[in-house]
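Project standup — Tuesday

K.O.: blocked on the structure for the chain from last sprint. Re-posting the sequence here as requested.
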Amino acid sequence: MAYRSGRAQPRVKPQGGLIEEVVQQFADRYAYARELVQNGIDAGATRIDVELTESDERLHVRFSDDGCGMTLDVIRGPLLTLFSSSKEGQEGKIGRYGVGFKSVLAVDPEVVHVQTHRAEGAYAVRLYRDYTFEIEPRPAAPGSGTSVELVVADTEIARREHAAKLRSALSRWCRHVRCPIQLREQGGGWVSINEPLSIRAPVVVGVEDDGVRVVVGPTAGTRWSGGAVGPEGEGDFAGFYGRGLTLLEAAAREPCLPGLRFKVDGPGLSCTISRDDVRRDGAFERAMKLVRRTSEGALDAALDDALARAAAAYAAQGDDSTLEAYRPLLAASIARRPKKATRVALVEPLEGEAVLSLHRIEALRSSARVVTATRTTPLTRRAVEAGYACVRLDPGGTVAEIVEPAGPPVDEAFSLLAAVGAAPSHPALVALRAVLARAGRAVTSIVPVVVGAGKWTRLAAFVGGEGGLTRGTWVDPFDVVPRGERLLLGPQLWERLERAAAVERAAALVARIVLIEQDGATSAKLNDRLLSASAGGSRAGPR
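H.V.: unblocked you, prediction finished:
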């Protein structure tokens, strides 16, 4: 037998009153999705289906679960307390009441249909916008479960907006629930709402202690982590969940911890009456201690290990895939760990090491023995031979954004020179050697060179030893010796000397340029000697 009203007048939502105050406590009108999912979880559901359909310019939103269903006492008590029966005198207020179900009224549905069944019986409930209700017994059905359907009469645009906000609410409030939740919109297929309890960060550590699950990651480097940004952003983040249901998600504000992104799911955590915060009780304090303990132990160890492996892979390969792994971990380590723990990838191994600590890099930088490069080249190999560390950067310059550039690019600091095939007996070279000798600067050989790689700003340079001759190449400034026995002659001076009609005069001019570049302004005596040499004179002596 149904509890019914004989009234036929239109249903009008009352203004004010206790029920309205209860409904208005919900900070998010669409948080009814969380409350209905929570009811299903409380009922022991193994699945929850949410289906949206439209008919007669109305949106039908239906939540179905296979939980234990409700008895008539539960319906008339916790479910409908605060509401009035439409059959006068049959229903009244009784004791305590459940607040969650009342959230369905926050979106002002035309009617809410509830159907529930279990071994003891089956019932249909209709709850109207004027806060009256009807209960009707239904034929028994196998198994158990409950469905709640909201019928919303509104414009097409408003119905679409409702559907979009419901999707968002399910994701916000229910994505970490362990019970499978499926959503189907009109004309579409079933889509899973569930996501594992995790956090986007360069490295994530998960710990479970006494039923409390914690996932923690560093904030620094998150902007370089792969995947979509998602609802948690990229800065400091704190998320609290009760059996997977969202209690509070906070970004860059209390109760966030500086430099951390974390989530906590625990059965003891609970929300405030307004459903927009987590209660600061003993369960909360225990969860925060677990977060801190995890960040100071397991997270740091995991970060060190992950960076060491990623830096070694990037040093060896230097491709996009290894860069994607290395970059966020490097940023996190620089922000969080001591310099001795932060590993930096090299282009060339130095003393057998493919990676160096940031502490070692800074020590080498203090003595100007660090350069940078994006790939292996003859210049990088020669730099390492000379004891320089060559830090690997990416062509896009993103690694340089993360770590202060360790040194200048190798191809701007040094240059690779190759000898021009001019015989030592070439008249121009013989003349220049003679002019230098008359000017008091004897050299064993003069070698014209071209720049093979890098940047060489000098016109000429004196070098020492015979190593460069046997290799056929020189690298500036490794081999440059201010008082060297050999002269490397740059392309500009060599072309001028080789093409000159008056070789002696050209040789004197080139000699003067070389000596000025090497020693600064020439003296009057030296100018006199160079002038004499250009005229074929023989005066010579100490400068």
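K.O.: great, moving the ticket to review. DSSP finds 15 helices and 23 strands in the chain. Confidence is low (pLDDT under 50) at residues 1-9, 16-23, 83-98, 537-543.
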